[in-house]
User: What shape does this take?
Amino acid sequence: MAKTRLHAALTVAFGLMAGTAVAGTYAGTVRSADGQPLIGVAVRFTHDASGVSETVFTNAAGEFRLTLERDGELLVRLRMPYYRDIEVDVHEGDGEMAFVMEAMTEDLEISDSLPAGYHFGSLPFETGEDALFNRHQFQRDCLTCHQMGNPITRFPRTPEGWVETIRRMHAMLGNFDAELRDRRSVLLSNGFDGKPLAVRPEFPIDESLARTRIVEYRMERGIVPHDAIVNPHDGLIYTVDQGADHMAVTDPATGQTEYFSQSGGGMIYRRFGAVAGEIAVFNGRNGPHSLALGPDRKYYVTNTSTNSIGVFNPATRKWEPSFKIENRPGQRRAVYPHTIRFGLDGIVWYTLAGSEQVGNLDPETGDTKLVDLPRVKPGGISGGTTPYGIDVDPNTGMVWYTRLFGDKIGRIDPATLEVTEYDSPVRGPRRMRFDADGILWVTGYSDGDLLRVDPDGFKSQVYPMPEFAPGFRPAPYALGVHPDTGDIWINENMTDRIYRFIPTEERYVVYPVPLTGTYTRDMDFTADGQACTSNNPVPAAALEGGVLQVICIHVQPPAQEA
Assistant: This one.
């Protein structure tokens, strides 16, 4: 990202009188070189001592305003698509800030500033619905765990330079076909050639952006901080880290995070599958992935590498003995417990991404059960269908799940364990959530869709997510339903943006996030309505600045008429 760095001696050129670097209100204006106000500029204040960043956006008059409660020196950064960044150290004086932003002029400069999705979307995909490397198959295969098209992954290399990377990626999907590996390596080599992109996406600016504040909390010890949820009892944010094997506890009041190891942490390597020589990196000794807060106020966690359900007690800040998932005679061996939710009766339900199963746990007795899902042919090159998202109908208690590579949405009767499956109206159904009315919402990862399902008769409606350039589809991972407004907050992993769908208006609002390389996970909400998520691209260096985060977005309601 191109930057213009301003120091105290140079700020006069931009009409700046730097604000006092203590708690207070900061305000100013941003204009283009021809004097026009710039709308939707992200003005980011980073507190030197705590590392907490807060971002606001300019309104229709190019104005911004932010009140900070933390003392200390600040770094102020301005960012706007197709304009060069400005950075200013704020350390003395007071007054209004006035900035002038310079437009980017060089094709390569503009191309390098575009989010990963536009570099990925420009690859020479195979055509045809049955092609293994068409766009939607490629998107589901290769974007599921990390970005492709960011500066780390798009640097030019020969097909031979891609082979090892593709071998590892295909091994994760249970596919060891050398011919397919070589085909994908050629495609990536031809696509990521270092030449500037011609595409120029047009990013919308909603009026609510001027009422939006984004707070970022750094996780200095994060490796793969996965799902994060807000504890309604203490207001802290709890995040399991699949790589560091710990629970991270973030206090929004101070911006500080404490870490509680499940087993000492560290990285290990495990053999993936039964094919000799196929080695894949497996992060963390237990690999905690997803978490849910139980009626006993303890967190229950899917441990992906030990096939167990971990238990973390917020009251004692300690991990308690985990529950081993028991394999029953005649059933498939449980592999990779994934997403976890609580049933209405206090039973824990979770998907098993590696063994085509859904499991449950009775926390009182420790009894575990496994439900073998119907055999389904996986899509693309995957060796399995990857049971993924899961949630519980608040009206009936029925357990619903998705199969990411199977294009199926299923239902389990918790009393009889009877399974019913439906063809998914969206390709690549990923994570899901019920709203308060019992409507099921599902992300369609392959094509960038949001799915609404009425469980009564499986009546569905698809809402395609907006694209900012024709043919460049978003990649929605997970979603959350706002408890007060009923709006659907959707994270998206390739455009450095988060989406909000307003069901009553059937429209989307898009919020740019502060850092390039953003890859967010599950969405949850604070008591005052902020939408929070972890930001954890793999590796951490793929995120601008290289330090992983929890981020929270707060949209103030419109001002009331006098």
